Amino acid sequence: MHRETARTMVAPGKGILAMDESNGTCNRRFAALGIDQTEEQRRRYRQLLVTTPGLGEHVAGAILYDETIRQTTDDGTPMPRALEDAGVLPGIKVDTGAKELAGHPGEQVTEGLDGLRERLDEYRTLGARFAKWRAVISIGDDRPSRGCVEANAHALARYAALCQEAGITPIVEPEVLMEGDHGLRTCAAVTRRVLDRVFAELRAQRVDLAGIVLKPNMVLPGCDSDERPSPAEIARATVETLGEVVPPNVPGIAFLSGGQSDLDATVRLDAMNRIFPNAPWALTFSFGRALQRTALQAWGGDPTKVEDAQRRLRHRLRVNAAAARGAYDPRMDEAA
Ligand code: 5MM
Fold first, then answer.
1. Where are the domains of the chain?
2. Whole-prediction pTM value?
3. Can you tell me which atom of ligand 1 is nearest the CA of 98?
């Protein structure tokens, strides 16, 4: 079952909408735009996303947060049902967040394994077909440490095994952050090292690699680096790094956007699919910010702006779905 779901999640020309911001993150994004930080506003915003006309055309799955999976649309339809009705698989973020890693100043380990078996049972009852767990790795002096990489990789593997036991497909998300002044090659080396460890742990925990979706960072220079590689250079560095460590039976790789601009994320995904049309895995998107940014700004908490916001989300979905086929044309954005 988890294999079939994994294949559906990365079906050709489709991606995943990451809309699983925890309340803290969602409230921060709302606060920056002067939107009330209430449960009702978060519900209205998530309703806007899941009821976007034609959502299922470009999106195979949407990742929800615990609060959202329990909410309904105005007419009382549970959010997961609204997604199913749109032809979109409902997913759920099941980690409980990245916390400071003891003995490793400046590093984090993602928590949420305690009671996960029982929570997965409940989430499946609520309609979840897949799950997500995000590990966070930072680059800096002596970072990432061996302890940080091993602890996060082990947790990701334990999570993935529990998901498959529950018939839920795991998204495995080890994110190497963009913060820092490191170059492209450093990011490539750290990403390779992290993924190598993640796959070693997945194998040790007997996770079926054909029944997962990998959600990594693209290989990029740090935000404070002077390097300005082209989309083609980034595409090559990313796919070649992944090619060294990601087994070919993993059905799909769905990238996070990690703070890139909307356009950068799209153009770089497109370059990967143009340069590597025969990659062993599907190469698609599981963006959060790079899909939602313009929609959230347009909405701004104003009920009269819902349609405009949905139009903007639909546009970013359309261009990224094109990028997932290597068929993005910059004129698509110029015309918007
Ligand atoms: C959508 O945000 C997700 C949850 O974040 P928090 O736990 O920090 O609230 C996040 O995991 C997201 O799915 C990934 O980072 C991908 O999103 P971006 O914006 O990097 O594409």
1. 2-328
2. 0.98
3. 7
